[in-house]
Design a protein that fits this description.
The complex is a heterodimer of chains A (about 325) and B (about 260). Chain A is α/β, with parallel strands linked by helices and about 325 residues long. In chain A, about 25% of the residues lie in helices and about 25% in strands. Chain A contains eight helices and 17 strands. In chain A, the strands form three sheets. Chain A has a nine-stranded mixed β-sheet, sandwiched between helices. In chain A, strands 14-13-15-16-17 form a five-stranded parallel β-sheet. Chain A is elongated, with a radius of gyration of 21 Å. With about 260 residues, chain B is an alpha/beta fold. Chain B has one domain: Rossmann fold (3-Layer(aba) Sandwich). Chain B contains seven helices and 13 strands. The radius of gyration of chain B is 21 Å and the shape is globular. Classes of the chains: A alpha/beta (about 325), B alpha/beta (about 260). Chains A and B meet through helix 3, helix 4, strand 7, strand 8 and strand 9 of A and helix 3, helix 4, strand 7, strand 9 and strand 12 of B. Strand 9 of chain A pairs antiparallel with strand 12 of chain B.
């Protein structure tokens, strides 16, 4: 049966839709004639309409609640009233994953996560084993198919001649104890320079740097290249840099023009987040490191020696 | 205070994974080990019990072939007991089916707090803990990088895209912890010896009051269509640094017009 209607969970931050929300709307438009969005918090309906949402369901201000429980409850209520869409596309963000898990259990529907591609017939693509193999999957049960999609899986393109969407306020049924978590304070970790997931050049450091203090080399090199510094999970876990720097499965997905991996061996966890880079430079002292299998230029050497010279050479160029 | 920790036993994470060519499920025929990402939940549970002045840590796991080696590792770290659900009927179970199994097993524990990793190292679906919370009607806080228990609440620093949120959640609740939230201890020799006598309750699907169509292949709401090698990246140039590695990088960046 042809896909008729797709619902997109459209997360926003600071009053604008996340790029991944617009990417999902764009893909939904290619797969189904009717595309709807579900949103909460700030009003982004006009923007969602530009990318093809004809109807925007808004859950409104969630106050201090975490989005997972109320947004999933609102979607379940919509489905109870108006029937299930063929598919629900959810961004692979922290809150998106919460919503997907809650919704899956509430509707008793399976969920496919880490989606990096979607084809007609609602067949999803997943990069497995560090991106060395592509697995395609589909749902076998009743609608809706719930897909959790990684950022940058699709390009976002505005729809031609889109009308302003119909905006519908949705009530959240009381969820009792399960909605008991309350945010008491929000902390924003400031960083300077281009954003990690938008920068044309990303320079990431890993355990091979040897010690936390050497991460300064990564910061310096990123600055010289007008890029953003990133990190492997290993050094984030070790507390060398904040989580916001992490590139990989549980961190950011980046697709820069150039990605420089310094002292990163190339664990599956990391490769999934950066193998879409147009050009990859890897520096690692272990010639067997998996990162070299996807590098366009690989330097087998000590990052502690190569990076300072590279920085000096770039500074000398002015 | 009683804490339950959901733990997964996974194929050796240092060797590359493999799919069973006929079933397209992850090959779990070999020896399994405690998922390294679960060591953080176990350690966190042990620390919270110490801070609370007492209580029990119960492991809950689902695995094929009555596998217990990963559970023994966590018991050797200091967990008190374990529940293992193992049944041939569970082959092919998807994340939601697994959540149903674990939720039923967790109901036997009656824990104040349930801990889990944010995702497993082998399948990394990342939705299971929240599915469990929903099935049990519990609140959940995911991606915790700091966890404390105070006056009937769990206080969590939760990672966000922009930084982190401080979250307060009444118990009972489920919390997923990120790697690095605590430093997992190594099992001591004494712990390893003690673990051998700690109880592991083994259950089947029938013990859990679940109908067979909710789990296994018949309960799975998804199927694999195909598995193909990914388009390989063009093989690059790998050179050994002879003191000129930086020059190669500069030349490469010039060629790309990045500098």
């Amino acid at each position: 049966m042809a896909t008729q209607r797709i619902m997109v969970v459209a997360e926003s931050f600071g009053g604008v839709a996340l790029p991944v929300s617009l990417e999902l709307l764009t893909k939904a438009r290619q797969l189904a004639p009717t595309v709807e969005a579900v949103t909460w918090g700030d009003d982004t309906a006009a923007q969602l309409g530009e990318y093809g949402a004809t109807k925007v369901y808004t859950v409104g201000d969630l106050g201090a609640a975490l989005p997972g429980v109320p947004v999933a409850a609102a979607i379940a209520a919509l489905i109870e009233q108006g029937g299930a869409p063929d598919a629900i596309l959810i961004p692979a963000t922290y809150d998106g994953r919460d919503i997907a898990g809650r919704l899956s259990a509430k509707l008793d529907r399976s969920v496919l996560t880490n989606v990096v591609g979607l084809e007609a017939g609602l067949v999803s693509e997943h990069a497995i084993f560090g991106g060395t193999e592509v697995l395609k999957a589909r749902f076998t049960g009743a609608a809706p198919a719930i897909f959790v999609v990684r950022a940058k899986s699709f390009a976002a393109e505005a729809a031609d001649g889109a009308d302003a969407p119909e905006v519908v306020a949705v009530d959240v049924p009381d969820q009792g104890a399960s909605n008991g978590a309350v945010v008491t304070e929000r902390h924003v970790e400031e960083r300077t320079g281009p954003k990690l997931d938008e920068a044309a050049v990303v320079v990431s450091g890993g355990r091979g740097l040897g010690e936390a203090g050497r991460y300064q080399l990564i910061e310096d090199l990123a600055k010289l290249l007008h890029g953003a510094p990133g990190a492997s999970r290993a050094i984030v876990d070790a507390g060398w840099v904040p989580y916001a720097y992490q590139v990989g499965q549980t961190g950011k997905t980046v697709k820069p023009t150039v990605y420089i991996a310094a002292g990163i061996s190339g664990a599956t966890q990391h490769m999934v987040g950066m193998k879409g880079a147009k050009n990859i430079v890897a520096i690692n002292k272990d010639e067997e490191a998996p990162i070299f299998s996807i590098a366009d230029l690989g330097i087998v050497g000590d990052v502690g020696k190569v990076l300072p010279k590279l920085i000096e050479a770039l500074k000398a160029r002015g | 205070m009683n804490i339950a920790v959901c733990v997964k036993q996974v194929p050796d994470t240092s060797s590359p994974g493999r799919l069973d060519p006929s079933s397209h499920t992850l090959d779990r025929a070999g020896k399994l080990m405690l998922d390294p990402s679960d060591e953080y939940g176990v350690e966190m549970a042990l620390q919270l019990i110490t801070a609370a002045g007492g209580g029990q840590v119960t492991l809950v796991s689902m695995a094929p072939h009555n596998e217990v080696s990963g559970l023994r590792t966590a018991l050797a770290m200091g967990a008190d007991k374990a529940i293992l659900v193992s049944d041939d009927a569970l082959q092919g179970t998807d994340a939601l089916g697994t959540a149903k199994v674990l939720a039923k097993a967790l109901q036997r524990v009656n824990a104040d707090l349930i801990l889990a990793a944010t995702e497993s190292t082998d399948g990394y679906t990342g939705t299971l803990p929240v599915q469990v919370a929903e099935l049990l009607g519990l609140p959940s806080v995911t991606f915790a990088k700091r966890v404390r228990v105070e006056g009937g609440n769990v206080l969590v620093d939760r990672q966000t895209e922009a930084g982190y949120d401080e979250v307060t959640c009444p118990l009972p609740a489920l919390v997923t912890v990120t790697a690095g939230v605590v430093e997992p201890r190594y099992p001591s020799f004494k712990g390893i010896m003690a673990a051998k006598s700690r109880p592991i309750e083994q259950l089947t699907v029938a013990d859990l009051d679940l109908s067979p169509d909710q789990v296994g292949w018949s309960g799975a709401g998804q199927e694999v269509v195909s598995v193909e090698p990914a388009e390989a990246r063009q093989a690059g140039e790998i050179v050994v640094d002879e003191g000129d590695g930086h020059e190669r990088i500069v030349a490469f960046l010039e060629q790309l017009k990045v500098i």
